[in-house]
Design goal:
The complex is a heterodimer of chains A (332) and B (795). Chain A is mainly alpha-helical. Chain A is built from 13 helices and no strands. Classes of the chains: A mainly alpha (332), B mainly beta (795).
Chain lengths: 332, 795
Amino acid sequence: MISLRNLVVAGLLYAGLAISNAAFAADNPLPDIGPTQQTLAQESLKKDAVCTRCHDESESAPILSLYQTKHGVRGDARTPNCQTCHGTSEKHLAGDPAAKVRPAPDVVFKKGVYEKTDDRDRSAQCLTCHKGGMRNLWDGAQHQNNGVACNDCHKVHRPTDPVLTKKTQTEVCFTCHKEQRADSHKISAHPIEQGKVVCSDCHNPHGSAGPKLLKKNTVTETCFQCHAEKRGPMLWEHQPVAEDCTNCHTPHGSNITPLLKSRAPFLCQECHDGPHNSKTPYAASVGGIQSGLKGTATAPANPGTNQAGRACMNCHVMVHGSNSPAGALFQR
Amino acid sequence: MYSTKKDFPVSLLTLSVQAALAAMAAAPLAALAQDDDVAALTNPTNTVELSVVHVNKSSDKFGEYSGLNKAGTDAVGNFNVRGGTAYGQNPGTLRWGVNGVDVGTTAQTLNANVANQGQWKLGLTYDELQHNITDSYQTPLLGGMGSNFFTLPANFGIINSTAVTNSPNPAVGTRNLSAAQLGDLQTRDVETNRKNTVFTVGYNFNSRLGLQFDYNHLEQSGAKLISSGSSSATTGAGAAGTWAGEAIMMLMNPTNYLTDNFNLALNYAGDKSYLSASYYNSQFRDGYNSVSWPNPIGKGSATTGATTTTLGGGYQSNALSTMPSNSLNQLNLNGGYNFRPATKLAGGMSYGRNVQNNAYINDPSMMQSPAPSASLNGLVETKNVNFKLTDQSIKNLSLSAGFKTNERDNNSPSNAYYMLDLGAGKRTEVDTPFSNRKTDFDLMGDYRLSKDQNLRAEYTHEDINRWCNGVTLASSYQTPAASSKGAGCVIVTGSKEDKFGLNYRFKSGDLNFSAGVSHAKRDSSVDHNALTALNDQSTVLPATVNASNYAGFLSYFDASRIENQLKASLNYQANDKLSFSLGGRYSSDNYFDSTLGVQNGHSASLNFETSYNYSQNGVASFYATQQVRYINSSSGASGNGATDNAATYSALVAPTNIFTTGLTDRDQTYGVNVRQKGLLKGKLDISADLSVSTGNTGYQNLVPYLSTCATPNTLSCGDTPGIYSRTISLKLRGEYKIDKKSTVMVGYMFQSLLSNDYYYNAYQTGYTPSTLLPTNQQSGTYKVNVITVSYIYTF
C-alpha cells in the first residue's frame, strides 16, 4: 500500500523535476549545453564558494555583481575564480585567532581594512589573461610609469564598468586629468560632456606607439578617424596641417571656436609675417566699429576684412588644404 | 546560501528523493529557490525609461550636441535590457543586450549585441549626432542647407562697394544695404548631422586564435559655415574688374560626406607571445567637389556713388573646391614576446597608402592656362616601426628602451600652376607635397628607493626630417614655361630634440605625492633661402627672403626651442570621510633662435578637489581649476625702408619696424556636487550639481615705431576686446522608488552662457567691412531651463 508520505514525496519529486525542466527550458531556449559546461560552472562556483561563503550578498560593496559581467561567466573555461585574481590567500582563509584583524588576502585591489597591493602586482594579475591586443605597450607606458593599475580605472565587481560605458567614462578619467575636465567645459569643445566623443575614441590608455597615448601612430591619423575629409592628400598642402592638427587646435576644449589655440589674425601671425597683411599689427581694430574704430573726414571707418571676424580666413578659407588648381593661396 | 539537507531515514524512497534532488541541483541553479538578494546581484537589472522633457527656450548653443536646441516638450526614451544563459551564475555562456540612449532626440544611440563568450560575438550600434552650429545666421542666398549651388533672389540687386551716403557715420558698401536687400536676409539654422553605424563581429577559433572584424559607416549631411572671397578677375557678367575682388560672403558649405572604415584583425595569444595582424581600409567620399555662389558686390564710382555694374549679365559667379574624396589602406602588425616574466619586447609596424584622385574643379576665370592635369593623382605612403624593451629583473629597478619612427612620404606629383589670385594678379605657383619623418629613442629607469618611494629618470631623443619629393622648379614665374625638379620646400628641414625628465613618487597609506620636472632642447636646421626658387614674389622681393617672411622669422612649431615643465600632485585621504587633492603644472617655452616669430610662452594650471562623506549615504565634493597661458611673439612690419619692394626688403635679420603681440588666456572652472541616497526610508535619492566655468582671452599689441597706432582710425596697438565666456550649469535630480519595479525621476537643469566675443562685430548689419555681407550671427548667449520627468520600469 502506498502511504500518504510516499505519495507526498513522489509528488514533490515529480513537481521538482517538472519545475527544474521548465526553469531550465525558460532560461535556456538553446539546445542542451551538455555536461561539460555545467560541470565547469559547478566546479567554478565551488571554488568561488571558498570566498563567497563569507563575502556574500550582505557585503556593502556589490561584489557578487561580478556574475553579471564577463568575469562571471562560469561556463567559460577561461573565467577566473576569486583566487585567480586575489591569490590563494591561505593566511586570510585560515585566519589568526590571536590577531585583531584577519591577515590580508594575497592581492588587495582596493584600500579598505587592508592596504592596497603594489600597483604593478595588481596589474600583473590582470595581465596574466589580458595580455596583448590593446595592452601590447602597457609596460613602460605613461600610466604604468605613474603608478596606475588596471583596477584604478576598471571596476570588475560592478554590473557595468563605468570606464567602458561612454556616458560615464570621462568621469573616471577626470579623476586624475582635471585640466581636461576644465577644458571640456569651455565654450568650444568636442561633445565630451554629452558622452558622444569620449577619451578612448582618441586615446589608448593602456599604452600606444602614438604621442600622448593616442590610438593611432600620429595625431593626424587619430583625427582622420572622424575627420577623414581633411586627410587628402591635397594639391596645395598647408604644412602645419599636414604635420600635426594640434599646431592650431586644442582638442579638449577652447575659448576660441573651433577648438583653436588662438584666433586669426594672431594665430596666423605666429607663422607668417611677410605675405600680404600678416605683417600688419592689429589690436582693438579687430573689434571694428563697435570697439571704437572711427573714420576721418575723408575716409569712413572701415573695419578691414584682414582683421575683423575671421580675419585672414575671410579670404584664405581653405586652411586645411585646397584641391583647386587655383588654390595655392587657400582662397579656392 | 542554501542547503539541500533533508532529514529522511535511509530507504529506497529516500535514495530516490535524494537522487531526484541531485538531479535538480544539476539543473540550472537559477531553477532552485535562490536567495532574492543573490539573484538581484547576479542577474542583470533591466530598465526601460520614458521621459518627458520640456525646454523653455530655443538655443542652438545650449543644444549644440544634446538635441535639445528647440523650445518645447518632447518624449525621450532610454532602455537597457540584457539576458542570456550566462547570467545568474548559470553555466551558460550566451549573453545578449539591447540598449538605447536618448532615443527620440538627434543624439540617440541604439545598440544590440550578442555573444557566446569564448566563441563569438556580434554587435550593432547606431549613433546619431546633430551639431547645431548656429540659429542666428542670416543670408540672402537661396539654395538651402546641404546645397552646393547658391543663387540670389531676383530683387536683390547690386551692392555698390564704394557708395557713400550723407549720414553722420557714412555707410559704405554692405553697410548701406537697401530695404529690399535687408528684407532678403533670412535666418537659417545651420547644422551638421552625423549618422554612424558600427558593426562588429569576433570569432575565436580556439583559446589562442581569434578573428575580429569592425565596420563603421558614417553619413554626414548638413553644412558648416565657411567664408568666401570673390575674385575681381571673374568674367561672365560684366567685364573684368566690374566686380569687387575679395568681397566676402559667408556660405553654408555642404558636408555631403560618406566615410566607410573597416578593420580586419587576426589575433594570436600564446603563453609567451602575442601577435595581431590587421588590415584597415578607410574610404571617404564627398558628394560634391565644389560649391558655387553669386557675388552681388560691384565696384562703383567713389565720387558719384553710381555703380558701373548692371545686372544684365547676371551676378558674378565664383566657386570654391570642397574636400576631395580619398582613401587609405593600411596594414598593421603588433606583437610582443616575453623572454621571461620580467623581460618583455613589444612593438609593431604599419604601412599605409593614402590616395586621392578627385577631378579638379574647372574654373577658367581663376587660371591663366589650364591645369597640367585633370586631377592630382596624389599618393602618401605612411610607415611606422616601433618597439619597446622592458626589464624588471633587477630588484627594485624597472628599465625600458624604446624606438619608434613614423614617416609620411608624400609622392604626389609636383607641377607649376598658372593661376590668378582674388585681385586678378597673375601667379605662378608650384605645389609642394610635404613629407616628414619623426624618429624617437627613449630610455627610462624607475628605481624603488623604498617601499613607498620611487624615482624615475627618462631621456628622449627626437629627430625630425622634412622634405618634398621632386618639387617642380618653374624657370619663369610670369608666363608658362618649362620646369625642372629639385627645389626645396621647407625653411626648417629638420630638428633634433633632447628631453630629460625626473619624477619622484611617494605613496604611503593615505598620502600620495608626485613631483616631476623635465627639460627639453630642440635645435632646428634652418635655411631661410630654401624657398627662394619657389618664391613667386621674386620680381618684388629679393632671392634671400624667407618664404616672403622677414629673414629671421620662424614658425613656432618647427623652430628651435627650450621647454621646461614642472608637475606636482598631492592626494590625501584624511579619514574615512574626507579626502583632498591638489595638483599643478607649469610649462615654459623659449624660442631662443627666433629673431622674429613666437619668442616665448608659458602656461600653468592649479587644481584642487575635496570630497566629504557627511553620512553613510551622502557625499559632497568641490573642485576648482585655474588655468593661465601666455604667448609672446614678434613680427616684422611693413614700412622697412621707403617702400616694400626688392630694394628695401633685405637680408636684415631684424627689420627696423617690429611689433609684438601678447596672448593672455585665463580660465577658471568650479564645481560642487552633492549626492544623498536613502532618504524617506530608503526610497528617495537626490543629487545636485553646480558648475561654473569662465574663460577670458585677449591680445595686447605693442607698436613702438608707429606714433599714431592708438588713434581711433588705426587702433593697431593696445588691447583687443576680450573674448569672454561664462557658463553656469545647475542640475537637480530626485529619484523616488515607488516599488521594486517602478521609479519616478524628476530633474531640473538650468544652464546659462554669457558670451562676449568681438568676432561677431564685423558681421552685424551696419558695422561690416564695406565688402562683407552681414550675417548677424550672435555669440550664443542663452539662459535655458529644462524640466524632465521620467518613469523608470525595472525588471
